[in-house]
Amino acid sequence: MTVHRSALVTGGSRGIGAEIARRLAGEGYHLTLAARTLDTLAETARLLREEFGVEANPVAARMNDLDQVRDLVQAHADRFGGLNALVLSAGTGTAGRVADMQAKTYERMLDVNFRAPITLVQAALPLLRKSAAEDPARGAKIIALASITGVAGEAGLAAYGATKAALISLCETVSLEESGNGVSATAISPGYVDTDMTAWKHDELDPSAMLRTGDIAEMALAVTRLSRNAVIPNIVLTRAGDRMWRARATAIETPGTGYAACVSR
Hints:
265 residues; two-stranded antiparallel sheet; 41% helix
């Protein structure tokens, strides 16, 4: 009987998450894909099923609703029974000065970028440990999409960068606590990646100068192929140029508010 690996990918309907899901499907992983909008998610799942012949189960879930987050893990458990890779790709960001940022702005980033990931990890650990025991060569992997702003601070991105720094720290600590059980966690911390979420930067940063979604997906796929003995806390991907540790973010202020929507992936 063939045993298929499975993965749960948040933010899986488009951009980096969709590309990671595609690479995993190419490796034969069955998938649970999560995002806010079911229509887009269902279409991504359909394409993966048709191209690779894997199961791809779309589950709509809002990352700022922790009950939905827990239900997402249960839906994966009900469908696949185990979990070889948990990919935390969903994220949100807003640029703005610390002095001016409203509480509701950074609270949403905390919800989506940190509370949801730690809740997912907590809910998924029993499944990850089970799959790690069944695959003692590779173990099970957690891969979290952080940001280079979580490694080096960037003016205008304090709250966003802080949530990503927390995510990086979470991955390292999970590995310290769980790698003995075969479960390790890796953060991937890129600079700007050319997706529709970074289209607002095109006036000052040409898309050709940005990282590609495939660059990030390649790193994620490499992590899933490592033995259980190899633990990588964080992978930083910077764009070519003379500001290696900076995302080169410039907040575009909304008049009268002092902050503006942005993302750094």
